[in-house]
Amino acid sequence: MEFLTPLHGSERKRGGRSDATLSKAGITAQKLRHLELLLISPWVVTAGPRAGVPLAKNMDVLVPNPASFIVQKLLIHGSRRADEKAQDVLYVHDTLELFGASLDSLRALWENEIRPAMAPRTAGRAIRIARDLFHEVTDTTREAARIPRDRRPAPEHIRAACRYGLEQILGALD
Description:
Elements: E1 3-6, E2 21-24, E3 27-32, E4 43-47, E5 59-63, H1 66-76, H2 82-98, H3 103-117, H4 120-133, H5 139-146, H6 155-170
Parallel strand pairs: 1-3
Antiparallel strand pairs: 2-3, 4-5
Helix pairs in contact: 1-2, 1-4, 2-5, 2-6, 3-6, 4-6, 5-6
């Protein structure tokens, strides 16, 4: 289980140290920008014995919907290290492939719940990042293609699949 908390202000403290985590009462939480997007219309997943999860009883867990997850990944892209950027591109790709049959419902989530909850400039920035990130194959896309151990997606496939999926969810990227 991973704990998350919002990141406000700089990612660096005055002395130059990273401000990426918060520790309280023995629990460490990763600080993330745009965390509030992950709380918009979360999906409920039941975990427990019936689902093959070793818990004493079933429990409902809230998980971010795929559209919110993707938009948050787009918005934090510029502040990530190179290896994290490639991993995030692969996450976007895999999320779009996994939920490709639901693109219409993800677009409805974007249009009706996620985008209205965002500042217009932030929503526009997410669209611009998607356009720029998947306009052509980049070193980040090439690195993302090298990450999976169970498959070798072509960088152009990652770029094209992401571009298509994001156009279906966010609208025209041009």
